[in-house]
């Protein structure tokens, strides 16, 4: 019951706003579009201020920087594009291809995780 009482005035306000927008669109088109662009510009400016002041500071934490660095290193390590192999035609003889072992010339990308190194586990000695 309470919801229907509240929704009726909301529908009336939305209907009157729609009638006003349509009448302004047909009677004063240039003013309508200028007001529309000004409203969009103000809304965009408010959103930009809110985003750059509040949301950006929260997103750049130290853990996020470490995560992005780890993702970058992982992509650099594992993102190798393999060349296409040309199919050998039936008339050509295929040479014996001996598999070669590829050496990784780059250093491995391993990170040391800081931990509590002073604390040792108590193990039972047999």
TrEMBL record:
Residues 72-126 are annotated as: Disordered. The chain crosses the membrane at residues 7-26, 32-55. Residues 99-109 have a biased composition (Basic residues). It comes from the Bacteria. Keywords: Membrane, Transmembrane, Transmembrane helix. Residues 111-126 have a biased composition (Basic and acidic residues). NCBIfam families: SA1362_fam. This is Uncharacterized protein. The lineage of its organism: Bacteria, Bacillati, Bacillota, Bacilli, Bacillales.
């Amino acid at each position: 019951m309470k919801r229907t009482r509240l929704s009726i005035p909301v529908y009336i306000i939305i209907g009157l706003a729609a009638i006003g927008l349509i009448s302004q669109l047909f009677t004063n088109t240039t003013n309508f579009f200028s007001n529309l662009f000004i409203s969009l510009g103000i809304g965009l400016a408010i959103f930009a201020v809110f985003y750059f002041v509040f949301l950006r500071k929260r997103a750049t934490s130290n853990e996020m920087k470490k995560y992005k660095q780890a993702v970058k290193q992982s992509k650099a390590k594992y993102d190798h594009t393999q060349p296409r192999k040309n199919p050998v035609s039936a008339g050509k003889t295929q040479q014996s291809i001996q598999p070669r072992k590829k050496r990784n010339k780059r250093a491995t990308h391993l990170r040391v995780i800081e931990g509590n190194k002073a604390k040792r586990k108590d193990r039972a000695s047999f």
